Amino acid sequence: MTVAACAALVERGDPDRFLAVLAAPMHVREQLFPLYAFNLEVARAPWVTEEPLIAEMRLQWWRDVVENAASGAARAHEVAGPLHELIRDFGLPVAVLDKLIAARRWDIHREPHADRAALEAYLDDTGAGLMWLAARALGAPDAAEAPIRAYGWAAAAAAYLRAAPALQARGRQPLPDGMDARALAGEGLARLAGARAGRRAVPKPIAPALLAGWQAEPILRQVHSGPHAKAEGLSEFHRRGRLLWQGFTGRW
Questions:
Q1: Residue 13 needs a FRET pair 20 to 30 A away by CA distance; which of 34, 38, 166, 241 works?
Q2: Angle at 110 between CA 106 and CA 113, to 5 degrees
Q3: Are 203 and 132 in contact (CB under 8 A)?
Q4: 156 sits in which H/E element
Q5: Exposed, middle or buried, 133 (CB in 10 Å: 0-12/13-18/19+)?
Q6: Three-class DSSP category at 8
Q7: CA-to-CA distance for 129 and 30, rounded, in angstroms?
Q8: Span 106-129, mean pLDDT?
Q9: What is the pTM of this model?
């Protein structure tokens, strides 16, 4: 039950967030690695089995972990233990953690999102919720929630667009009827602009929590550039350069 174990999980399963944490100051890594390891465990729970009931049980196990940790009854697990300490020491909102887990039930089944509002709620509960949790772990005030969640939503939309081909290959329909990738990218760019408009409410020490969204804008612009454009990601040179710039300047 160590932060090092959480870091190793993130390095293997979520390399982009791993790089984002490495670009953050050393003193915040103990907060970010357990949270990102928890997110990874929850995100992959629906995909490790073909049996929907087993996947549901895995997600319920994590919901129980969150509920028990909040009451002081932590479980002996390499991620659950450090997560318990985060909840206890930094007052992470249990409702946000629970919504993040519950939203992943969509990944278990093959039905598409019911409508645009359902997809937007999914991205809010997963990506936006995770970024707000990271910010709270670094001491973000309540006044910073709106811009941080907006930035997290934009980052989640970019990541979702990148994942869309893999979702389709697994028999999922990523976008609801009547919505295309360009529309989702446009909404992401709008929320990114809204986040930046409220940037003054976010104290500088919280900036490391936002590093995970460093690729959001170029990917969203890439998809929004034309009706057939795809989220192909950035070259390694541009990825590293953009992350280093955001980490050094604290601007997002």
A1: 241
A2: 55
A3: no
A4: helix 145-169
A5: buried
A6: helix
A7: 19
A8: 96
A9: 0.94
Which pair of structure tokens corresponds to residue 157?
Answer: 């939309």
CA atoms within 13 A on the CB side of 152: 27
| Token reading at 245 | 């710039």
Residue with structure tokens 């991205």?
Answer: 123
Residue type, 7: A
Residue 145: pLDDT over 70: yes
Query: For residues 3 and 30, is the Cβ–Cβ distance under 8 A?
Result: yes
> Distance between CA atoms of 139 and 130, rounded to whole angstroms?
14
Confidence class for position 236, pLDDT limits 50, 70, 90: confident
DSSP string, 75-108: -SSTTHHHHHHHHHHH---HHHHHHHHHHGGGGG
Q: Residue 18: in which H helix or E strand, if any?
A: helix 15-22
Name residue 170's amino acid.
R
| CA–CA distance, 193 with 31 (Å, rounded to integer) | 27
Most confident of 68-72, 215-219, 237-241: 215-219
Neighbours of 191 (CB within 10 A): 26
- Cα–Cα distances in angstroms (integers) from residue 140 to residues 25, 170, 210, in the given order: 16, 37, 11
Amino acid at 107: D
**What is the C-alpha to C-alpha distance for residues 133 and 127, in angstroms, rounded to an integer?**
10
Q: Which residue has the tokens 């990102």?
A: 36
User: Alpha-carbon distance 166 to 21, whole Å?
Assistant: 25
By CB atoms closer than 10 A (0-12, 13-18, 19+), residue 3 is middle
Give dist(CA 139, CA 92) in Å, integer. Answer: 10
For the residues 89-113, what does the mean pLDDT come to? Answer: 95
